[in-house]
TrEMBL record, chains A, B:
Keywords: DNA-binding, Transcription, Transcription regulation. This is LacI family transcriptional regulator. It comes from the Bacteria. It comes from Xaviernesmea rhizosphaerae. PANTHER family: LACI-RELATED TRANSCRIPTIONAL REPRESSOR (PTHR30146), TRANSCRIPTIONAL REGULATORY PROTEIN (PTHR30146:SF152).
DNA sequence: CTGTTAGCGCGTTCAT
DNA sequence: ATGAACGCGCTAACAG
C-alpha cells in the first residue's frame, strides 16, 4: 500500500492536521515540527492522492474556451472537441471534475474578444483558453487575467507578449518550412514559379507560415521563384477567384501553397481546370473537402494540427497550472501532421 | 452541483445501498424498485463520480507491459515511456492509481514470450500490454488470457487472430503505402530501381510495410522497379554491409526504403559514399541517429510512431476495458508521423 | 429484498 | 502551535 497522511502522522508523531499544514505549505507550524513531517514524507515516499484531495475539496475545474464563431471547418471541429472534452460522460469530464464552457466571439473582432476575456475572468475560472488575435486590446486583456493569477492558454494562434502561460498549437514557422521542404522535394529538378495564398497577413500564424516557407524556397542551390502573396481572406469565394485567375495567367506555375483557410475555393478552381494543375499543391488542415481533394489527387499533401489534441491538451495544461503541478511537454506538443492520401486517418 | 447517490436515494425513496446495487447491476433488487431508481437517475441526470468510487474501492489498476529487451532505440524509448507513465509522481501514476510493471523478454523468443504472458496472467492484472510476435504459441497464450477475461493490448506489432482486445500501433500497410507515395513524389520523373531493406519478413509489421510499399510503386502509369528485398535482421552491422554493397553495385539506384531497424548501419553506409547517395532515402522511427541523418540531409524523411503515445494509450485503453467504460478511438489512434528536417520535434 | 454504518485519503472547521 | 472530528461521493460489510 502507498503511505497515507495517517502513516506520515504516526511516523512523525503529530496529528493529521499538522501533516496537512506542512503538505500544503500553510502557516502555523514550528520549523522543527515541519522538518519532522518532511522527513517522514521523504522516508516513506509519500505522494499525495490527488483524487482524494479533490474529492475532499469538492473541487471542480472551471475552464472557459473562447473561440471565434467563424464558419471554417477547422474551428467547427475544434468546438466539437471542446464540447466532447467537457462531456460529463467521458473520462475527462467525469473522472476529472471539469466544467468546460464555451464562449463564441465574432471572428476577428478584437474589441468583442477583449470584452469576452474580461467577462470570462469575472467568473473566477480555473483557466481560460483562447484563440488569440494579434491586437493590443487582446494582449492587454490577457495580461489582466494573468495578473490576476488566472492561467491563460492561447490556442492555434499565439500571442507570446501577452503573458499567456501556454500555447497549444503548432510552430507555424516550422510548418511553413515543412511546406517549403515538401514543395522543393515534390518539384525536384523542375523550375517555375510557386504561388502562396494566405488568408490575411495581419494574422500572426499566416505571417509565420509564409516566412518559413519563403525561407526554405530561397535557400540552397536552386532557389524557387515565389510569386507575390495572394490574400483571400480565408473566404472560399475570394480564394476561388484568385486561384482561377492564377492558374489561367501563369502557365508554367509549378506549385501552390495555401497557408490559410477557404480551401474549398482553391479546390474548386483546381478541379475546374485539371489539365493545368501545378505539379505540387499543398494546403493546411483536414476537412471533408481537403480529404476528398487529397484522395482525388487534386492536392498532394495536407499539413495539419489535430483539433482534438489541442482541446484535450489545453485542458490538461490549464488544470496543471491551476494545481501547480507539472505536465509532460512532449505529450502536449502539438505535432505538425503531414497527410498524404495514404496516411489519412479514417473518417 | 452534480447530483449524488444521496439525491438519487431521496428522489427514489430508497436507501444508498439499493441505489448502489442498481448502479452496479448487482442482484437482489426487485424489478419495480430498480425501475424507480433508474428513473431517478435519468431524471436527475446522474453520472457516477469515478474518482470517488475508486477511492472507496481503493482500487488500483495493475497493468503489465511485456516488452522485448532488445537494444534498438525504439524499444528503449518505449520502455522509458512506460516507466514514466507508471511513475507515481505523474498525473497518470498518481491521480489515476496505476501500478505499471514491466517484464522484459528475450527478443523474438516465442517460447519465453508465451511463458511470460502466462506468468503475467497469474498475477491477476487489470490488463496486459505486449509486443506480439507472430507465432502460434503467442497467439494461444493471448487467447488464454482473453478467455480468462484479462484484457490484452498488442503494441507496435499486432496479432489480430489472437483475440487481443486492442492494438496500439500504426497501420503498417498504410505506413508502407505512405512511404511509397513519398518515394514516388520525391523521385518525380526520375526512373531507376528502388531498394527495400527489411529486418525480417517473418515479422508481421515488416511484411505489411513491404506490401503497402510495393503496391504503390507498382501502380500508376510509370511503375518504379523494386529490387529484391534485403533482410538485415534489424542489425546495424549486417545492414551496413548490405547497404554498402547495394550502393556500390547499383549505380543508378534511385531510392532506398528501410522499413525495419538497424538504421545506424544504413546511415554509416550512406555517409561513407555521399556522392552515390540515391535521390530519396526513407526510413522508420526517430532516434538520435536518424534525427541527425535527417538534419544532415542524408535521409529525406522518417516515418514514425510516437512511443510516448503508444504507452499512454495502452494504459488508457486497458483501464477502460477493466472498467467496462468506453474510450475515444480518435484519441487512441496512433498516427503515422512523417518527419522532414523541418518538423522534427525538439530534443 | 432492503437499510445502516463504517470507512477510502484528504481538507477543513472549531477547539485546545 | 497543534489536535479531534466531520464530510466529500461512493462501496462494502453486516443487519434486519
Amino acid at each position: 500500500m502507498r503511505p497515507t497522511v495517517h502513516d506520515i502522522a504516526a511516523e512523525a508523531g503529530v496529528s493529521l492536521a499538522t501533516v496537512d499544514r506542512v503538505l500544503n505549505a500553510r502557516v502555523g507550524v514550528r520549523a522543527e515540527t515541519r522538518e519532522r513531517v518532511q522527513a517522514a514524507v521523504t522516508r516513506l515516499g509519500y505522494v499525495r492522492d490527488v483524487a482524494a484531495a479533490n474529492l475532499a475539496k469538492s473541487r471542480s475545474y472551471a475552464i472557459r474556451f473562447i473561440l471565434p464563431d467563424g464558419d471554417n471547418p477547422f474551428m467547427h471541429a475544434l468546438k466539437a472537441h471542446v464540447l466532447q472534452v467537457g462531456d460529463p460522460a467521458t473520462r475527462l469530464g467525469g473522472l476529472e471534475r471539469l466544467a468546460v464552457s464555451l464562449d463564441p466571439v465574432p471572428s476577428l473582432d478584437v474589441v468583442a474578444l477583449a470584452a469576452a476575456l474580461d467577462r470570462a475572468g469575472e467568473q473566477g475560472p480555473a483557466g481560460i483558453a483562447v484563440v488569440a488575435v494579434d491586437a493590443p486590446e487582446v494582449e492587454a486583456a490577457i495580461g489582466r487575467l494573468t495578473a490576476r493569477g488566472i492561467p491563460v492558454a492561447t490556442l492555434v494562434s499565439d500571442l507570446p507578449a501577452s503573458g499567456r502561460r501556454h500555447f497549444a498549437g503548432i510552430d507555424n514557422i516550422a510548418a511553413g518550412r515543412t511546406a517549403g521542404g515538401l514543395m522543393r522535394r515534390f518539384l525536384s529538378g523542375r523550375s517555375g514559379p510557386v504561388a502562396v495564398i494566405a488568408g490575411s497577413l495581419t494574422l500572426r500564424d499566416h505571417r509565420e507560415r509564409l516566412s518559413g516557407f519563403a525561407d526554405v524556397l530561397a535557400q540552397g542551390a536552386q532557389a524557387l521563384n515565389l510569386l507575390p502573396v495572394l490574400e483571400g481572406g480565408d473566404d472560399p469565394i475570394r480564394v476561388e477567384t484568385l486561384a482561377a485567375k492564377l492558374i489561367a495567367e501563369v502557365p508554367d506555375l509549378a506549385g501552390i501553397y495555401s497557408l490559410g483557410a477557404g480551401d474549398r475555393g482553391l479546390i474548386r478552381a483546381l478541379s475546374a481546370a485539371p489539365e493545368r494543375r501545378p505539379q505540387a499543391v499543398l494546403l493546411h488542415e483536414l476537412s471533408p473537402h481537403t480529404r476528398q481533394a487529397l484522395e482525388a489527387g487534386l492536392v498532394d499533401a495536407v499539413l495539419a494540427q489535430d483539433p482534438g489534441h489541442i482541446a484535450r491538451s489545453a485542458v490538461r495544461v490549464l488544470r496543471a497550472f491551476a494545481d501547480g503541478t507539472s505536465f509532460d511537454p512532449a505529450q502536449e506538443r502539438i505535432r505538425i501532421d503531414i497527410f498524404l492520401k495514404d496516411n489519412l486517418p479514417p473518417g
